[in-house]
Structure formats: C-alpha cells, structure tokens
C-alpha cells in the first residue's frame, strides 16, 4: 500500500488520536491535530480518544479502533498532537511509527515544524517586490548607487 509521508500534501484520509485524563486537554489536542491535517489538505476521517494515559497503548479502545481503521484502509495516517499521547519518548514514538508504516500508514506529530525561511529572506523579497513595482530602493541593494 502506498504511504503518504508526514510532510506531504493532498487529500489523504487521516485519523486524529489523543489520550488525556482531562476533557479540555483532549479537545485542545484534537484542535491542534485537526489544524495540522487541514494545513496539509488531509481529510480527517475520524477522531478517537482515550481518557487514561496510564493504560498500555495496545489495550486502549480508541487506539484499537484507529488501528482497525488503518488496517481496513479507512485511514492512511494517524495524527497526534504530541508524542506523549502514544509514547513515552521519541524512540518509542519512532518505533510505533515503524509499526504503523508496516500496516501501510504513517504516524505524525502535529508540530508547527521548522521554519523554511533562510536568514534575510524576508528583506530580500521585500526589496525585489519594491523593484518589481517600480520603486527605487537600489541604494539599499548596491551602496553608493544613485538613479
């Protein structure tokens, strides 16, 4: 089955999962995960949650429903607001990601991600836009030049 990488864009059906003891924390995690999916144009096919993080992951009802949806092809990815909803640390999250990938899906943490802008990029773009608009900011680009 074709995997969709976590950074990819497209209409990919995904599941949102959270696990927290307090209802507001579950709602906030769902909101963050939905925002992450929406930013990538992924379709949220379902939202599942569990209310006891102390229960092992493989015995949680919400997680079992998600893995069933993944196995049946209903979803192709699982989005969590933070790794703590499904794993104790980054290594365990990576291992879980491998298991999900073996079932033909992907596991993603809803993060804002690193900035894709280079230092000074905004200033260079502003100067280029001004030049394209016919403004004369050339003194800032080439010191000592005058028109």
Structure description:
The protein is α/β, with parallel strands linked by helices and 147 residues long. It has helices at residues 23-39, 61-72, 90-102, 121-132, 138-141, and strands spanning 13-19, 43-50, 77-80, 106-109. It has a four-stranded parallel β-sheet with strand order 2-1-3-4, sandwiched between helices. Residues 1-6 have low confidence and may be disordered.
Quote the beta fraction.
Answer: 15-25%
> For the residues shown, what is the average pLDDT?
83
Cα separation of the termini: 61 Å
* Count, helices: 5
Strand order of the largest sheet: 2-1-3-4
Q: Output the helix-strand order.
A: EHEHEHEHH
List low-pLDDT spans.
Answer: 1-6
Q: What's the story with the biggest beta sheet?
A: 4 strands, parallel
Number of strands: 4
Helix content: 25-40%
Kindly provide the radius of gyration, computed on alpha-carbon positions and rounded to a whole number of angstroms. 22 Å
What sort of overall outline do the alpha carbons produce when their principal axes are compared?
elongated
Q: Which structural class do you get from the secondary structure elements?
A: alpha/beta
Oligomer: single chain
Task: Furnish the topology, listing elements before pairings.
Layout lengths: L12 E7 L3 H17 L3 E8 L10 H12 L4 E4 L9 H13 L3 E4 L11 H12 L5 H4 L6
Parallel strand pairs: 1-2, 1-3, 3-4
Could you list some keywords that capture this structure?
147 residues, alpha/beta, disordered N terminus
Short summary of the structure?
The chain has helices at 23-39, 61-72, 90-102, 121-132, 138-141; strands at 13-19, 43-50, 77-80, 106-109. With 147 residues, the chain is an alpha/beta fold. Strands 2-1-3-4 form a four-stranded parallel beta sheet, sandwiched between helices.
């Amino acid at each position: 089955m074709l995997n969709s990488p976590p950074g990819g864009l497209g209409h990919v059906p995904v599941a949102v999962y959270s696990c927290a003891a307090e209802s507001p924390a579950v709602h906030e995690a769902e909101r963050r995960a939905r925002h992450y999916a929406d930013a990538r144009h992924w379709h949220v096919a379902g939202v599942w949650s569990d209310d006891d993080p102390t229960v092992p992951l493989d015995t949680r009802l919400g997680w079992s429903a998600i893995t069933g949806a993944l196995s049946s092809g209903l979803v192709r990815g699982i989005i969590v607001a933070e790794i703590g909803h499904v794993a104790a640390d980054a290594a365990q999250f990576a291992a879980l990601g491998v298991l999900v990938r073996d079932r033909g899906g992907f596991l993603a943490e809803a993060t804002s991600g690193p900035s894709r802008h280079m230092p000074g990029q905004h200033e260079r773009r502003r100067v280029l836009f001004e030049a394209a608009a016919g403004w004369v900011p050339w003194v800032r680009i080439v010191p000592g030049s005058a028109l």
